[in-house]
Design goal:
It is a single chain. By secondary structure, the protein is α/β, with parallel strands linked by helices. The protein has a three-stranded parallel sheet with strand order 1-2-3. Strands 4-5-8 form a three-stranded antiparallel sheet.
């Protein structure tokens, strides 16, 4: 359980599932921690449907998220908002222009194969700023857009894990728009958290390593101070692997069909991740 005294007063946080599959027990755990932290801080929760991946997102999954969330008893204070909405598209474009003016956006034609080939030749993966083909110096238009965030590290105090430090670009400059013309997760969440006034980010430990890039990118976009971060334990399978959206045996829909009550599902998710507050 997190100490309420470490949370921003009246914090605004968000529950932000992607409609690329149905909710599973891990999403229920994240909802418990998100609403629990917001309640402890006297704050609020925004529901944000992160549908930036247009090829994988589906209306069926979007509708199911709303239904399953209501069945579990979680009711947002605002939203849902979506990343494909016109206001979001305009915000991403305006933020991109800001970075273009600053000279930190460049086109890149490196692929995953490019990075694999570089690693094979050099005996280890690419690390640090830039990319294998030095695309920033080549003045390309794309097809990928990357942000030159610089080298070094960022430090922050996680509200659960404590003091943390991480590399800003552990695997090269991060993409902000992919070759399918989708804005990336990194780009959307940083722009959205800034424009939505999110000052507390509650998510699973698997996303802890993305925090340094988000902190640096937020600063480049004019954020004076990063949000507070709280990375909670994950619901894991017996072999230690994390759940995926194809994990039918822990899917909310499958658990409902098996006769589990919402209270049962919440207890399973809370116990698996160490949430011990009154629920």
């Amino acid at each position: 359980m997190v100490d309420p005294a470490t949370l921003p007063h009246a914090a605004r946080t968000r529950f932000a599932p992607a409609p690329t599959g149905f909710l599973h027990l891990g999403h229920a755990a994240n909802a418990i921690w998100t609403w629990g932290a917001a309640r402890a801080a006297g704050g609020s929760v925004l529901l944000r449907i992160e549908d930036h991946d247009r090829q994988r997102s589906g209306a069926e999954y979007d509708a199911a998220i709303l239904e399953d969330l209501a069945w579990l008893g979680f009711h947002p204070d605002a939203g849902p908002v979506r990343q494909t909405a016109p206001d979001a598209t305009a915000a991403y474009g305006a933020a991109l222009e800001r970075l273009r003016v600053a000279g930190v956006v460049y086109g890149c034609d490196c692929t995953r194969a490019t990075f694999r080939e570089w690693a094979a030749r050099h005996g280890g993966p690419w690390s640090g700023a830039g990319c294998p083909r030095d695309c920033r110096a080549r003045s390309l238009a794309g097809p990928v857009l990357r942000a030159a965030l610089g080298a070094g590290t960022e430090a922050w105090t996680d509200r659960l894990a404590g003091p943390c430090t991480g590399a800003v670009a552990p695997a090269g400059d991060p993409p902000i728009r992919d070759r399918h013309d989708n804005w990336t997760y990194l780009w959307c969440v940083v722009v959205d958290d800034l424009r939505h006034g999110i000052d507390l980010v509650v998510r699973g430990q698997d996303l802890l390593e993305s925090s340094p890039a988000q902190i640096r990118l937020g600063r480049l976009l004019g954020r004076s101070a990063p949000p507070a971060f709280l990375h909670h334990p994950l619901v894991r399978r017996p072999d230690g692997s994390k759940l995926s959206k194809s994990a039918g045996d822990t899917g909310i829909r499958e658990l409902r069909a098996a006769g589990r009550s919402a209270r049962d599902v919440l207890a399973m998710a809370a116990d698996a991740t160490g949430w011990t507050a009154d629920r």
